[in-house]
Design brief:
The complex is a heterodimer of chains A (482) and B (250). In chain A, 25% of the residues lie in helices and 34% in strands. Chain A is an alpha/beta fold and 482 residues long. Chain A has one domain. The two termini of chain A are 14 Å apart. Chain B has 250 residues and is α/β, with parallel strands linked by helices. In chain B, the strands form three sheets. Chain B has a six-stranded mixed β-sheet, with helices on both faces. In chain B, strands 2-1-4-5 form a four-stranded antiparallel β-sheet. A two-stranded antiparallel ribbon of chain B has the order 7-8. In chain B, β11 and β12 (223-228) form a beta hairpin. Chain B is globular and about 60 Å long. Classes of the chains: A alpha/beta (482), B alpha/beta (250).
Chain lengths: 482, 250
């Protein structure tokens, strides 16, 4: 009788293979491994960058050299050897594409394997996609339509060339190069990423979407994303990623900066599915990301993330609620399986009057994994009538996994209202039996129950992304069929 | 439809069913009554395939196949339905999504195409009316925040949607007021045909005023000790179960 038991589930989960494990053979232009000022100069010159950006990189590098890799997170791993990483890799294609027909068929196939056909996306959903494969943007669509509205959506490198004043004025203002070890590293060696600017009063008519993918073995990827929403504007930005199967650990240290000026709103959604390592905990991506946004008066930044991949995740999308009456939101689903480790959460820094923040975190632990929520709610002394609501739920799938919650609250204004709720539960055998008795397979049952548990977060995602995220959750947690 | 022979089943090493025999034919309604602890719910659980129970002896033939050899979900897809005594809540999963998944799994099993959204919604409207279930409940999370009566009506609603061959109603009357009881019974009666059958497990006779059984069986100490026509239920109601015990002792 294949009624569901914990042991069977545990076994199934172990056997489950990473579904996006493949690599594509596209020639890449990779510079030798290692990191020093010459490498940084080389990256900067390959990208034909202005002098100020090279200086920025070198400053960051010098700062990074003085820094120590942080150890406070609830994760254990062998620290990467930063001299054993190649810091630049670009697909060997110099020409820019005029249309999708010109794109290398193999590259297109890679995109198709990601489960998202860009053609179809364009046709069906009107999503403009800036596809980043190994650091260099290979295609940008819908640019003309966006340009009509004055919206800039392009690769970071292009932005540096075409809109240097905007980049220079905003880059590093939310996450300074001195912020932390990985942010400093990124600031020194970032190769590409995305840039988005929404002019005053403009409501971006479509979801802006970027798919990242690490492709070249042994290369780290250091993206940089900068989104600036000018006064009274609105943008919904989607970021999703999958990575091919690799045995060696790959470092991923991205920086994302969001700037929401007065009365602006930014919705930033992420589905993260980097290679998590095999069932024995070998390989997998180290995902050490710094994401932060700053809010002007009456503005709003909303982070939504579905994290299922990576061997080690260290990520805290945060909001600095500087403007009065600004709002910060964080909706997160983090799934860990096998030997994955995740330490993720948010920081809500309340500086302005009447600022509000909401934190909804859903952790799901399976296998022998460790899943931690770490969050800080900080109310500064001028933040009169600030409000926060936090809810941190943990769902355990096995007896061998761990769920941890580290909430920090610092309050310096007595008018603040702060609520924190937390629950921990085990997936119910009764629920699974009920589904089985209705003819639903164990796999689908677990998918249903888990998606139900995460509903509050998934509901925050744009429709087409939510569907993808649901599938991903099911894939990440279900046993292999048979 | 189902032929149970000499069924023995135990939980945690304790034998609950001790040689149970029962045959149910298509078109029939069988009531199983008995005192607390007789093994009524165990029978329902064993037939549905709950893993906590171990079948140690006996056989169950379900429409020509060995029921005990099938997985829980396979039994369900072959047309065995259990209306739970205590329906489980599944937060965040809408009734509709749940049922649509179930229906399509069953259809896939039978090699049929998935039900279209249009057909599905039409069926939902039709069947929810049958058990007077507020259509709003159909889009709410499975059983979450439902009253006791709503949960039981939802079970019958699911039964109506899934159109099983054999339905086992495990104490469906418990916790129901008289109106809810009438609604639930009406649903069961409407769904009755010469192609399906029901086993109604109950402690009290009152449900049988509304769902009239073809046969009544008394389950006592893990065995069917007495079978008879529907009048047996009345006799039990009047005399209680003690006389059965006395009869057994003789």
């Amino acid at each position: 009788m294949a009624n569901y038991t914990e042991n069977e589930l545990a076994k199934d989960l172990e056997n489950q293979e990473y579904k996006f494990g493949f690599t594509s053979d596209i020639e890449a232009d990779t510079i030798p491994k290692g990191l020093n000022e010459d490498v940084i100069r080389l990256i900067s010159s390959k990208k034909e960058e202005p002098e100020w950006l090279l200086e920025y990189r070198l400053n960051a590098f010098r700062t990074w050299c003085e820094m120590i890799e942080p150890e406070w997170a609830h994760v254990h791993y062998t620290k990467p050897n930063f001299q054993d990483i190649a810091y630049y890799s670009a697909p060997n294609q110099t020409k820019k594409y005029e249309s999708w027909d010109d794109v290398d068929p193999e590259m297109k196939e890679t995109m198709a394997k990601l489960g998202i056909s860009l053609e179809e996306q364009k046709r069906l959903t009107g999503v403009a996609v800036d596809f980043v494969m190994d650091s260099v943007s290979v295609a940008t669509s819908f640019k003309a339509k966006l340009a009509e509205l004055g919206i800039i959506f392009c690769s970071f490198s292009e932005a540096v060339q075409d809109h240097p004043e905007l980049v220079r004025a905003n880059m590093g203002t939310v996450v300074p190069h001195t912020d932390n070890f990985y942010a400093a590293l990124n600031s020194a060696v970032f190769t590409d990423g995305s840039f988005c600017y929404i002019p005053k009063g403009v409501r971006c008519p479509m979801e802006l979407s970027t798919y990242f993918r690490i492709n070249q073995g042994g290369t780290g990827q250091f993206e940089r994303t900068l989104v600036v929403a000018d006064e009274g504007s609105y943008v919904s930005y989607l970021e999703g990623c999958t990575a091919p199967q690799r045995d060696e650990n790959q470092l991923h240290a991205a920086v994302v900066e969001l700037i929401a000026k007065d009365n602006a709103e930014i919705k930033y959604s992420t589905v993260q599915n980097w290679y998590p390592g095999d069932k024995n905990g070998v390989g997998g991506i180290f995902n050490f990301v710094t994401k932060r946004g700053i809010c002007g008066t009456n503005s709003k930044i909303s982070w939504t993330q579905v994290e299922t991949g990576s061997a080690v995740t260290w990520k805290y999308p945060s909001c600095i609620l500087k403007g009065d009456y600004s709002t910060g939101e964080f909706y997160s689903v983090a799934v860990t399986n096998n030997y994955q480790q995740a330490d993720t959460g948010t920081k809500m820094i309340h500086l302005g009057k009447g600022t509000k923040s909401t934190i909804i975190s859903k952790g799901i632990s399976a296998g022998k994994s460790q899943n931690s929520y770490r969050g800080l709610v900080q109310i500064h002394k001028n933040a009169k009538n600030a409000r926060n609501f936090s809810q941190c739920d943990s769902l355990l799938m096995t007896d061998e996994c761990g769920a941890h919650t580290f909430p920090y609250i610092e309050c310096k204004n007595s008018s603040a209202k702060i609520e924190h709720e937390a629950t921990t539960s085990k997936i119910g055998e009764d629920q699974i039996f009920y589904c089985l008795q209705r003819g639903i397979s164990e796999e689908k049952a677990i998918g249903l129950i888990v998606n139900g548990y995460c509903k509050e977060v998934l509901n925050q995602l744009p429709m087409e992304f939510a569907v993808e995220a649901q599938k991903l959750l099911t894939i990440s947690l279900e046993g292999s069929v048979g | 439809m189902i032929t149970i022979k000499n069924l023995h089943a135990s939980i945690d090493g304790k034998e609950i069913l001790k040689g149970l025999d029962l045959t149910v034919n298509a078109g029939e309604v069988h009531a199983i009554m008995g005192p607390n602890g007789a093994g009524k719910s165990t029978l329902a659980s064993v037939l549905a395939g709950r893993e906590d129970y171990e079948v140690t002896e006996g056989s169950v033939d379900f429409d020509g196949t060995d029921l005990l050899d099938m997985d829980t979900e396979e039994r369900a897809r072959e047309g065995l339905f259990l209306a739970f005594q205590y329906p489980v809540e599944i937060p965040g999963v809408s009734n509709i999504n749940f049922l649509r998944t179930a229906i399509n799994e069953i259809r896939e099993h039978k090699g049929e195409e998935a039900m279209s959204a249009k057909e599905f919604m039409a069926t939902v409207r039709e069947k929810s009316a049958l058990v007077e279930l507020d259509p709003k409940l159909a889009s709410r999370s499975v059983n979450e925040g439902f009253s006791g009566g709503e949960k039981k009506r939802n079970e019958i609603f699911q039964m109506a949607m899934l159109e099983p061959k054999l339905s086992i109603l495990d104490e469906t009357d418990s916790g129901l007021d008289i109106d809810a009881l009438r609604i639930v019974a009406n649903g069961v009666n409407t769904l009755k045909s010469d192609k399906n059958a029901s086993i109604v497990i109950t402690h009290y006779q009152r449900l049988l005023d509304h769902i009239v059984p073809d046969f009544v069986h008394v389950l006592y100490d893990g065995k069917i000790v007495k079978s008879g026509p529907k009048e047996l239920a009345l006799e039990l109601e009047e005399k209680g179960y003690d006389w059965i015990k006395e009869e057994m002792a003789l």
